[in-house]
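Re: the pair you flagged

First of the two:
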Amino acid sequence: MAGRVVVPIQNREAQLLGYIGRWPGDPPEDRPKYKFPLGFKKSLEFFNLHRALACPEDEPLVLVEGVFDAIHLWECGIRRCVALMGSTLADAQARLIKEAVPRDGHVEILFDEDDAGRNGRAAAAAKLAGHCYVRIIRLPGDNLQPDDLDTEQLTALFE
């Protein structure tokens, strides 16, 4: 993780599971932008789930792709949010959401406005729609990410 901004990943009980390391800026050609510890399975967990579960259950659970998107939403006052750490909602992650959100609850999907985000949000909505109300929130321009928006722009998306 040398040279990276490192963020801890905890499970729903707030137990430390591992870290995600992000290279600040563009990484050298021989290094990936994101790095996880060996053996860590991001498809089994979410970033920020333990904090999201502490929020009132009647608030929608917001699903984003990246850790820094979730941190940005938190800073903007949108606290019941979790990050996939990718653009694909795995079956294990869908089960975690179904445990966290009641059948009459709400999930709001706010993925990046790129091909991976558009494909990922459609697949995630299909996996969750039989369990709860799902709303897809689109960003106001191509290639935008939630952390590209300021607080006012973000909160306007949720109105």
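Second of the two:
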Amino acid sequence: MESISRRLSSLRRFSGSASGRLIMASCLTGLLVWVVLVLAPEPVIIKVDGQPMLHRSLYRTVGSVLAEAGVELGPKDAVQPDPGATVTRGMVITVNRAVCVIVKADGRTMMVQTPKVPVRDVLQAAGIAVGPLDRVSIPLADVVAEGTVITINRIAQRVVIERYQLPALVERIDDPQMERGESRLVRAGTPGEAERQVEVTFVNGRPTGRVLLSNLVMRNPVSRLIAMGTVSVVSRGGNTIRFRNAIDVLATAYSFENGRYTCTGQLVHFGVVAVDPGVIPLGTRLYVEGYGYATAGDTGRAIKGDRIDVFFESERDCDRWGRRYTKVYVLQ
């Protein structure tokens, strides 16, 4: 107890002296400087979407400084440095607000909240893979903004094998035993068969393009062979008839009871026949077997195709003719 008393007495004498008071003042000054240095607010720069602001804070983490500055962070906002990082004097804290991006892919439309990052990062975060052939509406390196629409068209290519028929060509040969305008089937012909490899391009499941890779003929076609008449002169009733072609028709008789004038306004008479102008043009000179020389001078609603009406002045002659198949020669 005596030693403690002696030490306290010595300390009082020291602090009471001039040199003691000087040393104690220096210690207090150093302590105050240390407190100021440790507790002084740190100046930092906060940039929110590129807009800077200076802020001083005693907080030591980025997240706390932002909260003190009234900067609320959304779940998708990007912060650099990380909110848990320690604040240093003069630090620049960058906050990029998340934006809403529309992504269209695989038949779906998605609204994605994302920081302003390149398109490839948005797609990766959304779990959307882009194939080597797929087409993206925006370059993958472009940085997205509010309302950006990203459309992905899925591209696929598939090689398919197709079998198809080769049509049989039609060959015609002259037949001097038949009249011109007549024909006869000599050989029916058969189609050939071929195989081709085609690369088909699909966009979103729909075929949009084809490229022929190879073509192989499996069986050659056999042509269809038709004999064509060449005879252009015949003798009928002692008359030599030269004609361009002959037509087998169904001929019906008609008389004045069906009308007295033709479609062209001419008075009907023997030798006038009604025709389909698409088969025999009006005004064409004809020779009708069993009837004689005639002119295509009238038409009729029932006269379609290979049909004609032949005119007789009496009903008796009409009844005698009736309706029959006959041959009409279109004269030269």
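The chain has five domains: 2-39, 42-96, 102-153, 158-227, 232-331.

-B.
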